Each structure stands twice: as C-alpha cells, then as structure tokens.
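Reviewers asked in the last cycle whether our approach scales beyond single polypeptides. To address this, we selected a multi-component target totalling 810 residues and predicted its structure end to end. The input consisted of the following lines:
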Amino acid sequence: MSYYQMNEKLAIDYVKGLGFFSETARLVAREVGDGNLNLVFIIRDEEAQRSLVLKQALPYVRVVGEGWPLSVERTIFEANALEIHNKLVADYAPKLIHRNDQLALIAMEDLSHLQLMRYGMIEMKKHANFPQHISTFLANTLFYTSDLYMDPEEKKKLAAKFVNTQLCKISEDLIFTDPYYDAERNNINPELRPYLEEVFWKKDYLWLEASKLKYKFMTEGQSLLHGDLHTGSIFAGEDETKVFDSEFAFFGPAAFDVGKIIGNFLINYVSWWGKDVDINQIKDYREYLLNSIVDIYNLFHKKFIDNWERDAQDISVKVEGYQQQYIRRLFVDAIGFCGAVMIRRTHGLAHNIDVDGIEDLKKRSKTQIRVLELGEKLIMNREAFKNIEEVVAFVKDNLGLEMKI
Amino acid sequence: MSYYQMNEKLAIDYVKGLGFFSETARLVAREVGDGNLNLVFIIRDEEAQRSLVLKQALPYVRVVGEGWPLSVERTIFEANALEIHNKLVADYAPKLIHRNDQLALIAMEDLSHLQLMRYGMIEMKKHANFPQHISTFLANTLFYTSDLYMDPEEKKKLAAKFVNTQLCKISEDLIFTDPYYDAERNNINPELRPYLEEVFWKKDYLWLEASKLKYKFMTEGQSLLHGDLHTGSIFAGEDETKVFDSEFAFFGPAAFDVGKIIGNFLINYVSWWGKDVDINQIKDYREYLLNSIVDIYNLFHKKFIDNWERDAQDISVKVEGYQQQYIRRLFVDAIGFCGAVMIRRTHGLAHNIDVDGIEDLKKRSKTQIRVLELGEKLIMNREAFKNIEEVVAFVKDNLGLEMKI
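The resulting structure, written as structure tokens, was:
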C-alpha cells in the first residue's frame, strides 16, 4: 500500500478495517492537528462511546508548506517508541492500537478528555500528581533502555532502529545552533532584536557551552529518549499524565529529556512577569512550579537509583563510585539542557505560548530577556549546583530585582 | 550464494572469476592466517609476479573453536571500513580489490613483502616514517568521519552501517571489564596471579576509571574508528605503513584509536626490562620509542587541526574555545585508553608477544607488573598531563628505580 494523504472520509474508511469499532458503527471523524508535521483525526462512535486517534505524518513541515520536505518515516520512530513506552511505562503513554508504516500512520488511544499540559499551565492549573508520573516515565525509559540494564548487543540493535537523522537535525539546528546567531529560521520578536544583536549574540562563552551540549546531543548514545519532552507533548488531567508525540525518539543523553521538561516549567515560571494577573496568585503558582521541579527531579533520581539497585546488569557499573558520578553527570547535563531549551523557545523557530501569550511586544521582550538570562545562567553555572534545591533557590534569587514578586 | 568455508583449492577457483589474474595464470594459494577469527590466503601467479590476499571470516573464534560462535558479518564492517580508508588514507591501507558479503570474504592487495610491525619492534626495528604515516591515518579518518566535517544526517547513516555489536562486545569485555576481576576468560601468567589477587584486583578506584572509559567506548559516537589499532594490525616497512584488520570498525571515541597505538608502543618500551639484550641498545631503542610517541601524537594533533581549519563545516564548532576543549578532551581520553589497553594485554585474553616473549614466567610477571603499574598511572593521572611530552617524561621517571637502564 503506497502512501496517500488521509482526509476525514478516508480516515473513517481506513479504521473500519481495524476491528476496533463494531462493523455497523456510525463513525465521525474530526481533524484536530495543530502541530506542524502531522494530520491528527479523532474518530468516534458516538453511540458506543468509543473513539481512537489516527495520526498521519505529512511529507513536509505544515507551517512552512511543501518547501520543507520531511520524510514520513518519522512515524516509524514514533510507533517504535510507543511500543517501548507501552511496555516500560504503560500508564503514561497512549496505547498504540495499530501501525501502518507504509501509510505513515498510527492509531492510538484517544486522550482528548485530557488537556494539553501547556494550556493548563497558562491557566495556572496545578497537576499534583505530575511529578510522580513523569519521574516514573523518565526513570523507566532512561534506565531500561541504557547499557546499565540492556544487553549491550541488544541495545545497539535497538539504537539502530532509532537512527532518526531528520528529526535529530531539527533539534541540532533549532535548539543548539540557530539561537546563537542571526539565523534565517529564527523567529524574532522585533522588540527583542536589539538585545540579541547588542548583547546575546556577543556571548561567545555561552555559544561555546551550547556547542558542548550539542556535541553530547549528537554523540552520546546513552538511552532511548522521548526527544521532545516539553509541556506541549504531554496531556495532563487530575490523575492522569500521558506523554505523546515521540517521533523525535533516538538514543541520546538521558539528561536531555530531564532538562527539557524542567526548562519548560521554568519558561512558565518566568512568563508571569508581564502578565496581568493577581500578584498573590502568581506567587502561589510559582511556588507550586518550583516545588514541582524539585519533586520531578528528586523522584526521578530516587526511582532511577531504585531501578539501578534492583536491575543493573553490567558488572562494570557496580564498582564503588560509578553510580554517583553517572548520576551527577546526568544532573549537571540536565541543567545545561534545561537552559538550552529555555533559550531556543524565546527567539528560535518554535516558541512557547506561555511567553508569546504576552501580546504587548515590548513587555514580551522584557520577559524573553529574563528567560534568556536565566537560561544562560543555568548553562554557565551548571557544574556549581549541588542539587535541584540549589537550582530552584538560584532561580528565586537571580532573576533580577524587578523579577521578584 | 550461501556461505561455504574456503580452502586453498576453493580459494584459487574463486579468485579466477575476479579478473585480477590472467585467465591462464597458474595460481598457488597458501593459508597464512595466524589470527583467531579468519582464514587468510595469499594467492599468487608466480610467473606474472602478481598476488592478492583473500580473507574469509570464520563463523567462530578460531582459538576457542566452535564453542564461541561469531557472526561472519564482521567482514562487511571490514570491507565498509576499507572502502573509507581507501578514500581517506589510500596510502596507508590495503587496496580493496573485491568483496563478497555472502561468502564473508574480501580480496585485497597482498602486503606480504612487509613485516608485521609488532614483530619488527621485538627485533628493535626502527620505522622512521611511521609517525608521519600513522598521524595522517589518524587525523584523516578521525576528522573526516566526524560531525566536524560530515553532514550530520549522512554521518548518522554511515554510523548505522557500523553497528558492530559483536566485535564491540569483545572489546567491552576483554579491554574494559575482564582484566579488573578474576574473569574466566582472562589468560593469567601463574606467577602474576598473586599480584592480581593481592594488589591489582583490589584497586576499585582504577576499575572505576576503566568503567568510565568503557562508558565512553560504548556511547560516544564521535568518529569512525579502526577499532583495533595495535602494532599487530599494521604492516610496516622502510617507507610503507599499511593499517589492516579493520573488522572492529565502529563509531566511537576518536581517542581510542590514538591511545591504542601509543599503548602498544609503551608495552614494547616496558618489555625490554627482563630481556637479555645489550643495555645500550635498549637505551637507544627506548629513546626511539618515546620520540616516536611524541611525534605520533604531535603530528596527529597538527594534522587534525589543519583538517579542522581547512574543512570544518559545522558553524557550532567554529566558536572561540571549542577546538581547544575538543582536542584537549581527545588527548586526555587517549592517555586513558592507552593505559587501559596496556592493562588488558598483560592478563586479559589476548597478550602481546613483546612481553610474552619473556619465557621465564617469574621474570615475565615482573615486567607485566611494570606494564600494569604504568597503565594504572596513565589512567589515574590522565587529566594532569598537559601534553604528550609530559606523558613521555612521566614514563621515563615513574617506572620505579629498577626499571631504569
């Protein structure tokens, strides 16, 4: 079956063959994709109250149009990653129902009763169970796909299934390269441009550190990463957390996933500066965000070590001191990646609505500068932090006086 | 064509079809393999003075017999690596004439007019041009297959052709794991055993550093390595250097190839202690060895940087300070790998004839202890050396008084 592009009618016809719905079901499809890369249909049997999501990769980047072609093979990476997530962290990823690599599509559990976490956070929603959930997601995916646990030959064969050249290239460019100079693809708030030109782009010491992080991203095949673990890749409800959009999955440094989610919390933390919200509400929400960051990291740390103590296989990693330096490096790198993703979301190609929701461009630029400054400080000081509590204290103390609320 | 094992007659029949020899040539074949993994035939047309080498992988480790099966796909890695060496360093690798992946064989230039470098070195032969040659080999293979030069997508696709699970596993076990405990596969001089049990195997701090190097070996996909660059993988003549046996090739840390060749020079350096050779000859040869090490490293360094200045592609690596830290890390890691390969060659599965040529086991054990002690010191102090001259001075000063000649 060769590739053809779905529409709502074709999507209904296709899923009828999957045995998921009854043969006589009256199905309704709705295209809900707001991403750049894919079509996403929710297909529903209203009577039986059953639904699924059909996601199909487009052979180009949607927002740019057909001028930026992108192989649809990324669906294969997403399906491969989902299969692993369904094994290792079944509660925290959508259930894969069907895959068709030729059509570049996957059918999966419909999670539309949940809200995108990023939208929840701009409404100041608190997700009390999120640290428990995401820490398990991180600890299990990052430990059980590493050489700590896997047979090294099996691990290399699995890594070979995730040679995700195109999507890695996007991250390499958009996260680690373009933001550090006046690259064409950057998406720059005109009010921010003077700061970039006069200050930010002159910081070669920062670009150097970003390049070191890029090197790790490009060469350190430690664990299977989600690869794009921001708050826009997570559905969060009262008691549920579901990580989706795993098409960026590849074997890279474990710290990248950890740092990316923390960085997205910090973007939200900074974004309240410049928003017209009651100051006590902001104080309270920021307290919640920082507490969440501490819990995410410490629970991840604990669960990762629990996995290690219970299930580490390689005799070489059991020698005195190995675990400590492994975890320490992971922490330091995570703080570095955290800073890098904060920076890329201010003036790189893709932004976060947390900050871009500030409509006044002047005000927005001031908030963006605080994001950039915090990102920079985290990168530059990453070796100095002893633990996540120190990072959080640093965030509180170092955003400049006018940031304090 | 499915796999069948060659013998001298079948080898002659096979090469007749390659068009390398004239149709009427009278060919003579001789099996000369002394390795553990392969059959090696030299096939010769005496009249035309033409010859080639036919190398076929065996589906098991020869020395152990059929009890240690090993996939013959390693020939594919060797052929793939040779193709790249023929492009990047044509003068310093055998010319690939033919490959047949189904039969797990390659035909290549006959280099039997040259001597195995290791044998030359135990005869105190000097290879005056070797540093020039091997430094080019290293600088070109390690630079032009890295992300410094290659398009990152092409590099990842190339790396996917070198997912060399079985042979990497051999290195992971035999170099970085087994020597640090009483592993079954170790090959231990009984006179050395007390030192191992009472001293060496109690050094957890050393095992920790070896495990860190193992982590780099397993996860850092920096450049296409030869993967087994010791003096037994090199033919060296007066004016010629040919690196062969690239079946261990994979994408790993560039420092591994650099450190391995230096480590083999240092094993030879130590080996003269305990040999019945004129003391002035030893002094002279050791001077030659240390000078060679300095030249190998410094020429490599210079050529690698020349390649960088001329051909680096990625804008991220041009930022101030990046090159310096990249090269510094490569140097430090190389000294670490150098120490690790010295250690594995004393009591791991595979030894060097340099030291094992000492027939008196008691004497041999004393020399082996000096190899182990030097290897350890290089690993433990690797961060402290500023340059290769300091390493060489350290070797001279730190082998213990009784080592000085």
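The domain at 115-403 of chain B is CATH 3.90.1200.10 (Aminoglycoside 3'-phosphotransferase; Chain: A, domain 2). We regard this as preliminary and will revisit it once experimental data from Aim 1 are available.
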